[in-house]
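User: Could you go from structure to sequence for me? I need the amino acid at each position, not a summary. Structure tokens:
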């Protein structure tokens, strides 16, 4: 099969560091996985984003923006069978509509499903209408405020008072919900004609810094005492959003009860780890074909390496980081500010503890180098 894998952040080149690093990680996972499975794969990168030597498409195009990438895809549409788009929900809906309006076949959830899942207010109402437990509106403090349109933990805050609520950015629409204590699992699905098939239960690590939430990393496969309940709640949420297709992720909170937070109608970061430690086929997953069986050869801890200080990278440092075992995406810009993601890594281990320990040791190794 001939495929064009398009990823928004690496095509646009101006997204925040964490979104771009996660996007690059998913792009590399899709491109290299499809290529390994014997398919012909093309992709594109923004001209300001460094090409990493381990990204292995048959053809790489350089573009100046997301708009330029989509025009390129339209011009080349007769040279491939399908486009596989990866993008945050608020961008993915428009991208899929563009592809459909230009007669380009794609492997994505429908624009209607993306729009419903991507608008957190709409999704919350859909969940409530279908008896899917989800956090209610804020009735006191603390509470959680997150952008109505957004991905991951970007722009998400724990709010402790009316003053903090009033201080939220005025140029962004927020949904404010009750704060729920608990673990942060997620479930990765392959969704197709036969329904939603769970590929893995994952663990997410989310940290609060000055009231702002930040995604640190995750583990797959993960164990949990409420595994069946979590997967059941996640599947119920997916089932009430018709039009979902391919790799889909569901974020939850598991405390005294299990709550669905959101459905991600697209490739998710957990799939980066999943693809490395299991026999799951990338093509089957993105086309919603359930595997006959799933085998895991180890656990994977995946996440960001955040910069401890402002830094200018030279070629020697980038090469050294690139060569370290576990680095999936090395620095792709020449500089970074303190707190920005400078790399994305995946560390494997025989157990969850061993995988995380290897990740932490890699993190410290990179910090010592820079």
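Assistant: Here is the amino acid at each position, in order:
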């Amino acid at each position: 099969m001939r495929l064009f894998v398009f990823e928004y952040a690496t095509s646009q080149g101006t997204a925040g560091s964490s979104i771009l690093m996660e996007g690059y990680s998913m792009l590399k996972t899709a491109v290299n996985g499809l290529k390994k499975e014997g398919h012909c794969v093309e992709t594109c990168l923004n001209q300001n984003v460094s090409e990493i030597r381990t990204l292995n498409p048959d053809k790489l195009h350089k573009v100046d923006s997301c708009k330029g990438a989509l025009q390129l895809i339209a011009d080349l549409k007769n040279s491939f069978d399908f486009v596989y788009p990866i993008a945050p929900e608020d961008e993915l809906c428009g991208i899929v509509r563009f592809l459909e309006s230009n007669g380009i076949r794609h492997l994505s959830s429908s624009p209607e499903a993306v729009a419903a899942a991507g608008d957190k207010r709409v999704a919350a109402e859909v969940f409530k209408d279908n008896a899917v437990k989800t956090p209610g509106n804020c009735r006191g403090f603390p509470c959680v405020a997150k952008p109505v349109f957004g991905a991951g933990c970007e722009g998400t805050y724990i709010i402790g008072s009316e003053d903090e609520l009033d201080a939220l950015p005025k140029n962004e629409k927020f949904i404010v919900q009750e704060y729920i204590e608990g673990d942060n699992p997620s479930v990765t699905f392959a969704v197709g004609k036969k329904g939603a098939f769970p590929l893995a239960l994952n663990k997410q690590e989310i940290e609060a810094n000055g009231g702002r939430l930040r995604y640190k990393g995750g583990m797959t496969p993960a164990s949990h005492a409420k595994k069946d309940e979590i997967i059941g709640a996640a599947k119920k949420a997916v089932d009430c959003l018709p039009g979902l297709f391919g790799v889909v992720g569901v974020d939850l909170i598991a405390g005294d009860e299990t709550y669905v937070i959101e459905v991600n109608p697209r490739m998710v970061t957990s799939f980066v780890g999943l693809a490395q430690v299991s026999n799951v086929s990338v093509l089957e997953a993105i086309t919603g074909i359930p595997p006959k069986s799933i085998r895991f050869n180890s656990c994977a801890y995946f996440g960001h390496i955040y910069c401890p200080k402002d830094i200018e990278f030279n070629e020697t440092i980038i090469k050294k980081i690139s060569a370290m075992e576990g680095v999936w995406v090395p620095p792709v810009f020449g500089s970074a500010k303190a707190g920005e993601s400078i790399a994305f890594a995946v560390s494997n281990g025989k157990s969850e503890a061993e995988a995380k320990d290897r990740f932490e040791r890699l993190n410290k190794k990179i910090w010592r180098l820079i």
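One structural detail worth keeping in mind: The domain at 2-108 is CATH 3.40.50.11770 (Rossmann fold).
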